[in-house]
Amino acid sequence: MAEVLKGSILFGVKGTVGKTFYLRKLRNKWTFNNIPHGRKRNSAKQKEVINRFKEAQQYAKAIVQRPEMKELYSKGISDRLSSAYHVAATDFLNAPKIHYVKFKEYHGAAGDILRIKATDDFQVTEVFVRVFGANGKLLEEGHADRYRRKSFMWVYKTKVAHPDVEGTMITIIAKDRPGNRAIQKLTLDKDRQAKVENEVKLV
Fold first, then answer.
1. Fold of the domain built from segment(s) 97-201
2. What pLDDT is attached to residue 183?
3. Which of 12, 87, 117, 199 is the right S-S partner for 73, CB 3.0 to 4.6 Å?
4. For the ranges 15-24, 28-37, 54-63, which has the lowest average pLDDT?
5. Which class for 149: exposed (0-12), middle (13-18), buried (19 or more C-beta within 10 A)?
6. Model confidence over 138-178: pLDDT tens digits?
7. Angle formed by the axes of helices 67-74 and 84-93, to 10°?
8. CA distance 25 to 4
9. How many CA atoms lie within 13 A of 99 on its CB side?
10. Are 13 and 45 in contact, with CB atoms under 8 Å apart?
11. How are beta strands 153-157 and 194-201 bridged, if at all?
């Protein structure tokens, strides 16, 4: 499920596009709906949202021209999303979400494990991990592997020994098919407790 943070142009905004669709946020997701009666003039913020909505339409129109992508997005058809086109456009509008990072198996040794739960309204395509020392120096980076039995779980095995974990910052980047990204930063203290910061970057 996508997460739209306060301060984003998408937070708490509704808008219309043309004479066909109405954009609104429902249960933390941006959805397509029939245009309601009584249109009102859009605010500047609404116009920004509408422009993004148009970009979503352009993405969906282009992507479903590719048979293999149309087939892929057809797997997301539901009572709410009636075609591959609507699934693709909604995917464009919604970023992934990183639910948590389990680092109890991380002690600063090579071969330690980070477990990441990341989801998307359609599909998380990759999860990338960066590990920084307390001085801000990049220690290692690489792709996490999807866990076979649970598609929403990802596993990253560290490659570099780093015994002094205090101040270590771990950055997790989850990406969906259109290119939206969820970013979670964890900074570990001396007791291996984490300060967590979340960010969303839309295409």
1. Immunoglobulin-like (2.60.40)
2. 98
3. 87
4. 15-24
5. exposed
6. 999 999 999 988 999 999 999 999 989 999 999 999 999 99
7. 80
8. 10
9. 11
10. yes
11. unpaired
Assess whether pLDDT exceeds 60 at residue 6: no
Model pLDDT, residue 35: 58
Rounded alpha-carbon distances, angstroms, from residue 92 to 44, 53, 59, 102: 21, 9, 7, 28
Which residues in 76-105 are b (16+ Cβ under 10 Å) and which e?
A: beeeebebbbbbbbbbbbbbbbbbebebee
The strand pairing partners of 97, in sequence order, are 119
Closest CA to 145 of 165, 124, 162: 124
Nearest to 89 by CA among 32, 153, 163, 160: 32
Segments making up each domain of the chain, as ranges:
15-93, 97-201
Residues in Cβ contact with 112 at an 8 Å cutoff, skipping those fewer than 6 apart: 105, 106, 157, 158
Cα–Cα distance between 122 and 91 in angstroms, integer? 6
